[in-house]
């Protein structure tokens, strides 16, 4: 029954994400402080639901539940337990669930650590992040469900994880890379909030800059670790070969680097406002594009 609980939690998370996308914005329009404050409650509920679903999938890998098609296709009983846990995000469905988990985590972090930010801005930012979460959750539920069953017949042994992925790099590289990708959603959400409110000043950049820096650091670590992994695992004889998959992560890094500099100029000199907005949107859009290209099998 646990996989069914996981699916139910994802359905509940989608409902919460939709509420987070609409209710706080309604509160901003009405000037209702309690409705705006509800964004923080929805952020907590969203994270709890997604984390619960992710735990259910990890549990299925750890106990070798081959009645779950995703587990049967990416693990077996001989795989060490740490690779079974990492196999959770080793393929398409699980990696999308990891994305949503990290997205809900960043959403919760913004809700918790933005007490100095005006309530209407926080409500708008969290609503935008809720929309992104809702989009990914809908995509998972309708096209990439990780809890699909192999019943009534199920294999007694799984098909194993791709041998190239049976490496410590799988444990650290995708989470770090996704932490960077998803982290840029905060700057994106602040940019959309600034456009919705009609005001872009030094306060906007002061609030968005620490989140952008954290995302850039995570993305940098993920790219460096991925380069090292490709170097010794694939034996290319070098760290970087401008492979399309490498470029898919490098383009957001370039946009993020430019965004950090633009945020500094906007905060200190009130310049580059349009560039800051554009780069905030472009950085996260490139993250979405890179994830789609890599995970869709196009590259």
Poorly predicted spans: none
Q: What is the CATH architecture annotation of the largest domain?
A: Up-down Bundle
Average the pLDDT over all residues and give the rounded result: 90
Structural class: mainly alpha
Keywords: Cell inner membrane, Cell membrane, Cytochrome c-type biogenesis, Lyase, Membrane, Transmembrane, Transmembrane helix
Function: Required for the biogenesis of c-type cytochromes. Possible subunit of a heme lyase.
Domain Cytochrome c assembly protein: 89-296
GO biological process, one term: cytochrome complex assembly
Primary descriptors:
single chain, 299 residues, mainly alpha, 2 domains, 77% helix, cell membrane, Cyt_c_biogenesis, Cyt_c_assembly, transmembrane, membrane
What would your notes on this structure say?
It is a single chain. The protein is built from ten helices and no strands. It is an all-alpha fold and 299 residues long. It folds into two domains: 1-161, Four Helix Bundle (Hemerythrin (Met), subunit A) (Up-down Bundle); 167-298, Up-down Bundle (Four Helix Bundle (Hemerythrin (Met), subunit A)), CATH 1.20.120. Helix 5 (92-113) packs antiparallel against helix 6 (119-143) and helix 6 (119-143) packs across helix 7. The protein is flat. It starts with a helix and ends with a helix. The mean pLDDT is 90. The chain crosses the membrane at residues 6-29, 41-62, 96-114, 121-142, 178-198, 210-230, 250-267, 274-294. Belongs to the CcmF/CycK/Ccl1/NrfE/CcsA family. It is found in: Cell inner membrane. One of its GO terms (molecular function) is lyase activity.
């Amino acid at each position: 029954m646990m996989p069914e609980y996981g699916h139910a939690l994802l359905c509940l998370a989608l409902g919460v994400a939709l509420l987070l996308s609409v209710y706080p914005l309604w509160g901003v329009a009405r000037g209702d402080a309690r409705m705006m404050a509800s964004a923080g409650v929805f952020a907590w509920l969203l994270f709890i639901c997604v984390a619960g679903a992710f735990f259910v999938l990890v549990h299925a890998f750890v106990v070798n539940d081959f009645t779950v098609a995703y587990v049967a296709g990416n693990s077996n009983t001989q795989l060490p337990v740490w690779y079974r846990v990492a196999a959770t995000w080793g393929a398409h469905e699980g990696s999308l669930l990891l994305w949503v988990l990290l997205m809900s985590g960043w959403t919760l972090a913004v809700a918790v650590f933005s007490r100095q930010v005006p309530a209407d801005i926080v409500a708008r930012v969290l609503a935008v992040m809720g929309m992104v979460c809702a989009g990914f959750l809908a995509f998972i539920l309708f096209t990439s469900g990780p809890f699909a069953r192999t019943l009534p017949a199920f294999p007694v042994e799984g098909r194993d994880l791709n041998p190239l992925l049976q490496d410590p790099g799988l444990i650290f590289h995708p989470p770090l890379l996704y932490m960077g990708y998803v982290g840029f959603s905060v700057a994106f959400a602040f940019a959309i909030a600034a456009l919705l409110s009609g005001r872009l000043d030094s306060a906007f950049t002061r609030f968005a800059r620490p989140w952008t820096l954290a995302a850039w650091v995570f993305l940098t670590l993920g790219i460096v670790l991925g380069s090292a992994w490709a170097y010794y695992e694939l034996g290319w004889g070098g760290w970087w070969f401008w492979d399309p998959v490498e470029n898919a992560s490098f383009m957001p890094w370039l946009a993020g680097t430019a965004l950090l500099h633009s945020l500094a100029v906007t905060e200190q000199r009130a310049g580059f406002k349009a560039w800051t907005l554009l780069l905030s949107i472009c950085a996260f859009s490139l993250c979405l594009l890179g994830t789609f290209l890599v995970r869709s099998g196009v590259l």
